[in-house]
Amino acid sequence: MVENSIHTATLSSKGAPIVHHPKRSFGETTEKGYKVEPLEFTWNRPEAEFQNAIDYILHDHAWYRSLLLKSHDCTMDEKKRICRILVKETMQHSELEEQLLWPFLKHKLGDEGERIRERILSDEQKLRELLQDMEHHFDDSFALEKSLRIFEAELVESMEEEETVTLPTLAKICSAEELREAEESMIKSRPYEPSHPHTWAPQKDLGIGFNKLNQIVGMVDSVRDALSGNQ
Questions:
Q1: Most CB atoms closer than 10 Å: which of 13, 66, 72, 129?
Q2: Three-class SS state of 25
Q3: Are the beta carbons of 45 and 89 closer than 8 angstroms?
């Protein structure tokens, strides 16, 4: 993995500094895959580039863990804010994985890789449904807490499977250049990905038309977030 020293060079679309090629200080590689520790808590997703899509995904996982930890020791208003963040960020995260990482499984491993990808997509559909359930309960504190804990358990299980099975597999079958290009595409695409669960949306890669549909849905979600003040 990339071990270059940290330096800041550019700004994100939100004006926050992007840290380029940082050391992966949020976890380590073990015989069982990647062990990921929570980042220090921040409300905004720390933006960083690693020149490696796998580290980019693991960095998200580390931040999600910090949000989940915070959700156990916060006010109800803070908990609602965390839920809104989780809805947006995990949605965009999963869209990036589906479009830019999981297709490598089929392309590199054939039928076996496609079976792995189909299982992942099924699990991510379940997470979308749980996110949708969470969104429906923002006005009911008891129901929201219950929805959040169910989502937390599913998300942690999903992240651990990726960290011990899927991502180590991708590290073996993808070249450094492929992973660098995948991360570059992720950073460019993320602001335009859907930020709310749409359980009716197709999960299969349908080519250019599918990408355009995703961008349209993402634009609609951006307007929705702007109007509601949840950007």
A1: 66
A2: coil
A3: yes
Calpha distance 19→12 (Å, rounded): 10
Cα torsion for 215, 218, 220, 221, to the nearest 10°? 180
d(CA 61, CA 96): 14
Q: Who wins on pLDDT, 117 or 23?
A: 117
Could you read off the pLDDT of 50-105 as tens digits, one per residue? 999 999 999 999 999 999 999 999 999 999 999 999 999 999 999 999 999 999 99
CB 158 within 8 A of CB 126: no
In angstroms, what CA-CA distances link 130 with 47, 162, 163, 183, 226? 26, 19, 21, 27, 23
pTM, two decimal places: 0.82
CA gap 79, 68 in Å, rounded: 9
DSSP-derived secondary structure letter, 21: S
Q: What is the pLDDT of residues 159-218, one digit of tens each?
A: 999 999 999 999 999 999 999 999 999 999 999 999 988 765 555 554 444 455 555 554
* Residues 6+ away with beta carbon under 8 Å from 152: 68, 71
From the number of C-beta atoms within 10 Å of its C-beta (0-12, 13-18, 19+), residue 155 rates as buried
Q: Which residues contact 129 (CB under 8 A, 6 or more apart)?
A: 197, 199
135: number of Cβ within 10 Å = 15
Q: Which of 146, 143, 135, 150 is nearest to 199 (CA)?
A: 135
Return the closest-CA partner of residue 198 out of 106, 144, 149, 135.
Answer: 135
Tell me how far apart the alpha carbons of residues 122 and 60 are, in angstroms, rounded to a whole number. Answer: 21
Whole-number Å distance between alpha carbons of 34 and 125? 24
